[in-house]
Amino acid sequence: MRKKQTALVVARAALLVPICYTAAAHQALSEPDVKLPTAAAGATAEPVRAGTVGAGAMSGGTPRAGTAGAGTVRAADLLAATRSCTQVSDGMYRTDDDARQDVPVCATHDAVFWKADMDIDCDGREGKACNPRTDPLFQPTTAYQQSDGRQLDAENLPYVVVPGASHRWNHTEHGVTGGTVAAVVHRDKVQYAVVGDTGPTDLIGEASYATARALGINPDPRKGGAGPDVTYILFKGSKAQPIESHRAAVARGDELARRLVARN
Predict the structure, then answer these.
(1) 69, 190 contact by CB (below 8 A)
(2) Checking DSSP bridges between strand 206-208 and strand 111-121, what pairing results, if any?
(3) Which of 7, 124, 154, 192 has the fewest Cβ atoms within 10 angstroms?
(4) C-alpha to C-alpha distance for 252 and 264, rounded to whole angstroms
């Protein structure tokens, strides 16, 4: 289930220019964020540790990077909070090139969300699992970069991909940009992540190698991914700082997830 196309490069180029927010988005972004110490120059995202789902996800109060279940909010509660859809996209998205347009972007007071499949984004910094040999559609750049200017590391940083801005839906108008905190729900697991890349303007449902692996989804960029049972929840106006800190994403994400569930 692959969706990356030439259009992806065009979308990225368009989003590398400064972003102008609407007044509504500016108001959403005014909410204070949880800020953790900025990583030193050259620091990388904390490595994903396989096999650390559920029990034991917390160590000394610090979430392990890429660990599904490293928060306090249940998957069932997040799914209940996003059961009803108030559509904000002007039309719907396809999950793949040959699929029907049947996925709307929905919104609550606190978040935007959608339910789709998961294709694997392996772009950014080259590694053992993500490189031109393992992924024929590999791109050496991501739409957003680390605080030190380096490309994001799809193998080790849980991130999600949003559709490129278009008449159908412009994510920036809903307080969503690079580093926006997300909760990705698959079955009974919750994985906190950040917005790290953009995709084609007509397709939806993609996340990094690290996101898939932490959720128990096959992360292989050629044959991996999941069917249309993945829920992506992006918290308006939020930010993990720095973008490469999974620890910051978990801290902020868990706080916002609790708020979302409480308001349901």
Answers:
(1) yes
(2) parallel
(3) 7
(4) 19
